[in-house]
Amino acid sequence: MRHMLFPGVTVCSANPYREDRVKEAIDVYARSHSSDANETDRETLFVFMLIDLFNRNESDELVHLGFQKSDMLLECSYNGISCSSNFIHSLSLVFGNCFTFNWKDSSHKLYSLAELGSTLMPYKGLSMAFYVPSHLNYPLNDSEDGLILFLHDNNAIPFFAKNTERLRPGLAHTIAYRKSQTIFLPKPYTNCTTIATGVYSRIHALKARQDLAVNETLMAVWCSRCVPQCVHTHFSIDVSALSAPNVKQKEYWSKRLLRNDLNISLPNDFAVNHNKYVDSNYLRVTVTCGSAYVTVHKQAAKITLIHAFSAVGGQTGL
């Protein structure tokens, strides 16, 4: 099983929007609609602005309002192989800008468990370090500081994954996964299919597939006869965490951030209070395989068609 593919890993900011860019956009929106963007109704204007952008399909503007990968990611390695550029961007209606490693796409390499770099790693798998720029978070009642991580199959829509993890800064998280599959029998036993539904087979862009899947109206129009797939993949996970960064990590990343060679937005007083900021905003997560075997649950017919006809023949004397 060494050649089993590593799963897709999608990371989003737990707070989707940058305050500096949202405030500027609200002012522009208010002027264009002859509204006064005072503090009492900015929240209402923000909601109306987002709805308007979605309705007009202004995806570029929505991307601009959110956090980019370069705003957060310090480093990425997969089994000692640098992977900072191996992410596919997607835009979620709920989570804003998200970035997926090892998603099935013609322009990106898919990594298996067998691929190893030259650097020794304490844990095999995907290791990512982030600086979560919490000072830029737009204040929302239902959003916190940190990251959201989805673990899913390589060709699956990430935002349907059930095992979503919310990751807090100031910790080094380790996520060990085990893969399992449930395989159902196709017709006439169940209503599932082993063939990709027409609308999905024609849609290859991740964003288009997401928008279709999360929108009940679009599903009703374009996929009214869609049936579930016969193969369901699930990742069970165990999560542990330790305090981070340690002394060595804090020293290293403070120097890098002070040199400002990472293009990460920092608070104005970072040079004076860098120890405090690195302590409260550094986040590391390692996703590692807990078992190189796949547990398969396969549905089986208790009575086959041949057995059924034989039984009928026996009953009728044929």
From TrEMBL:
Q: Which domain of life is it from?
A: Eukaryota
| Pfam families according to UniProt | ASC (PF00858)
Q: Please state where this protein is localized.
A: Membrane
Keywords on record: Ion channel, Ion transport, Membrane, Sodium, Sodium channel, Sodium transport, Transmembrane, Transmembrane helix, Transport
Per its record, what are the GO molecular function terms?
ligand-gated sodium channel activity
Major localization class: membrane
List the GO cellular component terms: plasma membrane
Q: Any keyword Oxidoreductase?
A: no
Topology relative to the membrane = Multi-pass membrane protein
Q: What protein family does this chain belong to?
A: Belongs to the amiloride-sensitive sodium channel (TC 1.A.6) family.
Q: What is this protein called?
A: Uncharacterized protein
Q: Which organism does this record belong to? A: Rotaria socialis
